[in-house]
Known about the structure:
3 domains, six-stranded mixed β-sheet, 0% helix
Amino acid sequence: MDYCPVCKEDTEHDVLASSHLLVIQCSSCQTIRKVQPPKEPDQVRVKTIVSREDHSSVCFAEFFEDEVITAGDRIVAECPDGEGAGVEVMSIEVEDRRVQSAEAPDITTLWTRVIDMVVVRISVHDGKTTIPLYVTCTGDEQFVVGELYKAGTHKTIRYRITHIKNRDGSIRKREGKYEPASKIKRIYGFRV
């Protein structure tokens, strides 16, 4: 929802293009205009101990500042080898005590174990706000720039991928380019 100056009320808008400005179209009156994209929420890196069967590694996970992490959550940890590891949070350390959940900036260390599935973080813009989505999938599932996907509760949010940021820092923006879930740091898209 965004305010339409022609309709003089909040209406649904479709994102037609994105660059330093968003090109949006009112679903009611079809007026097209440019607006500033919403500001991305700040992120924090949290130290994450990743346990495999015979050894553990010190890795990191990224979260939005206001994000609450709970024991049992499935996340992707960035490890020194450059690969993403799908892990399950087993324990959360805040200062010198263990808790069941905490906001990301308060967490000292996450204790995790490797699992077969990974969680891909997706930031979807709807023209006014950023909607954080989390999709659980296998590490080799591929996501394609320009393709339409569904996510959220009961897969109610439809979005088109505009670019993919990888764990190695590279970005895929060209339509048709793809990456496997285990290499993706974050997917960016616009609500359709």
